Amino acid sequence: QVQLVESGGGLVQPGGSLRLSCAASGFTFSSYWMFWVRQAPGKGFEWVSSIAPGGGSTYYVESVKGRFTISRDNAKNALYLQMNSLKPEDTAVYYCNFKQYTSEVTWASVDYWGQGTQVTVSS
Questions:
Q1: Three-class SS of residue 60?
Q2: What pLDDT, in 10s, does the model give residues 76-122?
Q3: Torsions phi, psi of 114, nearest 5?
């Protein structure tokens, strides 16, 4: 029932911009922290950004601070990532993600992922 569908990726030149979207359904979107996570070729998953349920608090990995902006529209069940001044090292598959905690004792959780959208930054 939970669905996360990313879109907006593509090929862009260094210094360019891209806006990623994530359409969410099947859960109470406005109650959850949301995350953007990326996986570069041959690399592991890297957390990129987080946003609080109401959008009032945001966090970024140091390498994207000042360049990326996370936002959400709870009325549309949508999550966004505005990416400016893109660099080749930003090349990755970008996923939206959230966690449902299954135990408040152990902090065990289930992660939900979209299918990902490819971002390629190249000349």
A1: strand
A2: 999 999 999 999 999 999 999 999 999 989 999 999 999 999 999 99
A3: -85, -175
